[in-house]
Amino acid sequence: MKRFIKLTALFTLMISLVAAFVMPVSADEVINEKLGVPIVVYGGNLTEEQKTETQKLLEVTDPEMVDEYTVTGEDLAKYIGGNPNSRMFSSAKITMEEEGKGLNVSIITPDNITEVTSEMYANALLTAGVENATVVVASPVKVTGHSALTGIYKAYDVEGVELDKERMELANEELNVATDLVSSAGLSKEQVSELITQIKQALAEQKPASVEDVERIVQEQLDKLEISLSEKDRQLLIDLFDKMRNLNIDFDQVKNQLNDIASKVQEQIGDLLADEGFWDSVGNFFKKIFEAIAEFFTNLFK
Asked: What's the CA dihedral at 221, 225, 227, 232 to 10 degrees?
């Protein structure tokens, strides 16, 4: 009996030691004194109930462990020249990371962010000059997702990190072009994200010196990805990337992050194609069943 008790005590001690190493200690979260606590920026038009829900979505459990702000239409006007009367619902949590960590963006309510993907956010933020951060976007209601970008800009502003206003405005234009292409050109969000990423990579490699060079790069990538656009939509891309050329945005600095975005998008496209193939096979299966049933009854009444 004593031996059994000793073995039980030893087993309990071993489990406790393993748990101490494996389980996170939530009660004593460590504040990064160099980079600061995460910043949470809430859409200014959220109700109190919606804000509480957003806090849960963004895993804000202790107000002392984050800095909280609100983004309004006035911020939209300040950072990107938007409409100061705009209604803002999408929110974001930004955690600054060490140099070299890269930019990681995730949307935890993808069904409620209807127009913008995490890759679109990442691309736009790189254009604006945002690097080395983990960004989480959420909304308790269905929204396009554009206000989250302004919230991220505000987070950097309050932290004393100055982003170039022209680059912020261009990033917003990039996001608008991306969502416009999805709605007007019949492209998927993944196709648009891949196209924009590939063009940026080509800009970094070829360093165009004129608008004609930009036009050539855009057309090369359209051909490479087998995407056909109207002249109007094609011109949207040329104008956007010519502005990037004139702002001398150095995408060499974020080439690895562009590669990461491209890889993620290509995986998503592969998954979509696989899903389409699966459902096509399911559809063909049921089609054959219905044809067989129809043939049976046709023969029955001959």
From this structure: -20
- C-alpha 273/C-alpha 205 separation (Å) is 29
Q: Are 102 and 260 in contact (CB under 8 A)?
A: yes
Q: What is the pLDDT along the chain (302 residues), one digit of tens a residue?
A: 545 444 454 444 444 433 433 334 344 455 666 678 999 999 999 999 999 999 999 999 998 899 999 999 999 999 988 899 999 999 999 999 998 899 999 999 999 999 999 999 999 999 999 999 999 999 999 999 888 899 999 999 998 988 999 999 999 999 999 999 999 898 999 999 999 999 999 999 999 999 999 999 999 999 999 999 999 999 999 999 999 999 988 888 888 888 888 888 888 877 655 555 544 554 555 455 555 555 554 555 55
- Kindly give, in sequence order, each residue whose CB lies less than 8 Å from that of residue 210, ignoring residues fewer than 6 positions away: none
From first CA to last CA, the distance across the chain in angstroms is 84
